[in-house]
C-alpha cells in the first residue's frame, strides 16, 4: 500500500477492525517514510463486472462511482451514513451476483433508482432527473405524477 502523502510503499498496518456490517475491513496504517497515518478499507469483490455504457463502450464496474452518484442525490438529505452504506453494499452485491459478467448502465441505473425510492423520495427524483436526462419542468411533473400513480394504485 502506497502512502497517500509521500507515495512511499513502506507502510505498516497498526490496527485492523471489521466494519459494523461485516462487509469490509478497516485498516489503520502508518507510513515508515514520513510517519503519516491513514485509513484503508478493504471490501470483498465477488467477481469482475463490466458495465456496458449507452454508446456501447465497456468499463469495469466501480463501486465508488455508484457511491458518488448516491452522495450527489442525497446531498443535504438526512440519511444516516450507515444506512446508506448498507443500501450501497446490497446493491453492489446484487450487481455482482448476476449470472452475467456484463451489465448495462441502464440496469444499474434502474436498480439505483429502486434503492433510492425506498430510501428517500427527493433523492430518487434527483437521481432520476440525471439518469433520465430531464430537460424541462414538465419532465419532472410527468415523472412525479407517474411515481405517485404507481405508489397509490386506485
Model description:
The structure is a single chain. This protein is α+β, with helices and mostly antiparallel strands and 154 residues long. It folds into two domains: 11-42; 49-141, no CATH class. The chain has five helices and six strands. The strands form two sheets. A three-stranded antiparallel β-sheet has the order 1-2-3, with no helix packed on it. A three-stranded mixed β-sheet has the order 5-4-6. A hairpin with a 5-residue loop joins strand 1 (11-18) and strand 2. Helix 1 packs across helix 4, helix 2 (81-96) runs antiparallel to helix 3 (105-119) and helix 3 packs antiparallel against helix 4. It is elongated, with a radius of gyration of 19 Å. The termini are far apart. The model has no long low-confidence stretch (mean pLDDT 88).
Can you list the strand order of the major beta sheet? 1-2-3
Instruction: Give the total of domains.
Output: 2
Derived from helix and strand composition plus strand pairing, the structural class reads: alpha+beta
Q: How much helicity do the residues have?
A: 40-55%
| Largest β sheet strand count, sense and barrel closure | 3 strands, antiparallel
Mean pLDDT: 88
Using the alpha-carbon principal axes, give the shape: elongated
- How are helices and strands ordered from N to C? EEEEEHHEHHH
Q: Whole-Å distance between the termini?
A: 57 Å
Radius of gyration: 19 Å
